[in-house]
Each structure stands twice: as structure tokens, then as C-alpha cells.
Amino acid sequence: MTAQNAVTASPVARKPRLMVTVAALAAGAALALSGCSAGQVSQTANQAPAINGNNIDVEQISLRNVHIVYPSEGYTNTQGGKAVLALAIVNNSGTVTDELTSVTTDLGTVTITPPTGDRVLSVGPQQTVVAAATAGAAGEHGDDHGSAPTTSPTAEPTASPTTQAPATSAQPPIDPEANQALIEITGLTKDITPGLTYTVSFNFKQNGTVQVQVPVDAGVEADRHESDKSGPAPEGAGGGH
């Protein structure tokens, strides 16, 4: 009886040992992984975020990727200079057109240049208007929008009354970036610094006013900051484990 009890008890005794062994192996794997990554630079450390800006909704209007553009030629983002606001304005209403009447901020005076061919920056139902992300993009392809209504009746004079109506309603959403607006802040009252946000108010005729905390585009890539723990980056670093 004593021998049988000893035999049957032995598998039970082995279970805690097995669990301890598994836990030790898991801990060793975790230490190996942390040691592998020590002193290395993440592959995404030097990549800019996919979306730089802020998002906010006001009634039926959605503002997407609102940010101050990293300065290119002609823009300095320093006191006395001028900067560019970039964003996409989406009208979610199915029936009502809205208009961006003004943009205000204590950073300076804001000038709105509508897309080519428009007197005001209006956004039709279920449409999107994009403000230029880079200087000089506004109206760059403005002729494309003016030529489409002229060429479509010429190509099909017989079918134009039937086919032209749906083509006209579907045309604007195809490429909202083809004919962009331009929103500039001129006479900057202070330097605009990446890492900070600045209050900007967007005033719409139908949907009211919304304040946005607008970040600043930090540029193409961020600098790597080394410390005594990370050590210098090895030559040709960039691969992962």
C-alpha cells in the first residue's frame, strides 16, 4: 500500500515542478527579448505619424487632420511671417450646403482663398473640400473642373440629357484634392513651434463656430535622442529582431 501511494503521488508532485519550469522558460524568453531590443532604435522611431492633425465635429460638419503645415518655401512659421493651415472639411448633410465664412486665431490674420472658380469656400451636401497641405496647391488643377461640363455634352450630344445629370452630381466627390482651397495665417504674432497646439476657430454659416486645438507638423522625420542607456546607434542600424 505504501509503495502504491508513493507511485500514485509522484505525478502530482511533478506538476508544480512542471509549472515552475514553464514559468522560468517564459521569464527567460522575456529577458532575451528585452536584451535584444536594448540600445536599438525602433523601425518606426524616425517615421512621421500617418495623421498629424486634430479631428473635430460641429453639427453636420467634420474637420479632419487639422494642422499647421511644416514650413516650405515662402513660409517661415516665425513671428512676422506666415503659415498654412491644412485640413479637410466634410459636409455630412444630405441637403444643406454650408460655407466657411471666416477663420480666427490670435496667431495672426487668416486669409481664405477658395478653390479656383469659387467666390467663397462652400461645401455642398455630402461633399469634401480640402485646404492645401503645401503652398501653391490651391487651384493647381482648377482647369479640370471647368472643362468637364464643356466636354461631356460634346462627346455624347444625344445621350447628354440622360447621362449628364448623374455625372454632375457624382463629379465633385471623385477627387476633392484636385482643386484645393488655401488658408493662410499672415503677420504671425509669435513663433509657431512643433509640439505645441494653438487655438483656431472655424466659423460656418449654417453649422456655427468650433474651436480646434491645432498641432504643428513636425516635418518628415523626428531626430533620434540618444541616452546613456540606449548607447550610440550602430552603423547601418534600422533592422529589427
UniProtKB/TrEMBL annotation:
Record lineage: Bacteria, Bacillati, Actinomycetota, Actinomycetes, Mycobacteriales
Record keyword Transport present: no
Pfam families in alphabetical order: PCuAC
Signal peptide segment: 1-32
Compositionally biased tracts (Low complexity): 147-172
InterPro entries cross-referenced by the UniProt entry: LpqE-like, PCuAC_sf
Organism: Nocardia puris
Entry keywords, A to Z: Signal
Keyword Signal set for record: yes
Protein name: Copper(I)-binding protein
Segments for region (Disordered): 134-174, 219-241
